[in-house]
Every structure is written in structure tokens, then in C-alpha cells.
Amino acid sequence: MADGTLLLAKEDHVDYYYNLLTLKVKPVVEPEVVDLRSRQAGIVDGMNVISFGRSLLTFTLYGDRGKLSEYPPSFGCYELSATNCGIPEIGEGGPLVNDEGYVVGINFFGHYRCAQALPTPTILSCLEMWKSFSTVLRPWFGIRVIDVKEYRKLVSNPGKELDASNRDLSVSVKEVHEGSVAYKNNVKSGDKVATLNGTKIETVKQYSQLLSEASRAATACESGHRLMAVINPFDRPTDDIIIEANNISVDDKRFSSW
């Protein structure tokens, strides 16, 4: 609590993909309930934001101004937004608000003047699925992806550059998790993610949105929630690899290894 009072809490739900945790706790005073659904604001690239946190040592409340960027950092979670607010480790988990006081996300630890925030709509989606189904399933291919223009920046050896036939690629595989379905099917870094369930993949953001939609369908046990990806190997562009995502619970620690 703000005055240093410690309360006993019980773990309720945990999500290793988004690094979210909900707790059950009996407060000493009646808390004021804030409906995040009525306190949402549009997230706009370049908007002014304020990050809030409270020191774990002195319990002092502090804040820092900055701007939000829609393009997510390479942190294994494509829904993350980036801010240039200074968020020290002791401030992790505090709210990120706009100038009007609307909550637009939760702060995550970041480096000096470069931090990450999980947007409010993503948080609400998790809470709603937990409330309705007591669990959340996510499609898992075992890959990290990256926009091709960013991938090229990571290629230090010119001899490893994508060939001319693949220079129109939009999204490439950055890393492959050992033991995953992608690993077992010989998917490699630099391969193209061509389609998801027949939809052409053009951006990492689009890829993330399709995974989120598939997650809700799998959690609700809706029919036809299988998710298939077509991968174009960078060194064999005519030999497509077709893989099906595994639906695993978000409390599976495989997510925390990224």
C-alpha cells in the first residue's frame, strides 16, 4: 500500500506471454473501482503520455512524461508499444496515461529513455477471457517474427542478405524456438511468413492481430480455430513449409523463455 502496509495476496491468473498476473487480496479499505472500458482512449503514434510508478523502497509516487510509438520494440511480444518515458525497474507495472488522464497501458521495465507498455485493449481482452473461460490459449508456432527492413539491419554479413526474389518480403522469421513445431519442420531465421490461414502477411502488426483473434477462438473452443502458416524458406522460395500452431495455455512457461 502507499503507506507501506503489506497485504497477503493469492495468485489468481498468470500469463507468461504478456507477463500479466492477477491477484486476490482483501483490502484494508474499500478501493475505488475504475472501469477501464469507459476510460479508454485511442492510441495514436506520437501521442503525449505520462508514466506513473511508486518506489518499492520509499513508496514515493513519481511520474515521467514522454511520447508513445506504435511500432513495438523487439521484445517477443508484438502488441507492446514503445515510449521514451524513463521507467526504472521499481516502476514496472504502473499505469501509462495520456494528457486527459485516460489509461492507455501498463508500463514494463525498459532501458533509459526507452521503455515498453502493454496497451489497455490487450489487457482487457485477457481479463475478459479469464473471467469467461478461466484460462487463455494462444497459438504457438515457436517463432519470433520481424519486419524485413528490420531483419536486414540485423544481417551483418552481406553474403547472408535475402536474394533478389525475396526482396519484396514483409515479415521474416527472426528466431526459432528449439523443440517447437517450426523447429521440427526446419523453419529457419530469414524465412518468410507468407500467410496465416490463407491471409497474406504484410506486417508484424497484422500477424499479431491474427494471432490474437485465433487466441480468442481457441479459448472459446469455437469450431475451425486451427491456425495454419505457410512459410517460404529464404534459400528455397518454391518449397513452402506448412505448419499448424499448437494451442497452449498462457501459464505454460515456454512463453517466459523468450
UniProtKB/TrEMBL annotation:
This protein's source sits in the domain of life called Eukaryota
Please report the name of this protein according to its UniProt entry. Answer: PDZ domain-containing protein
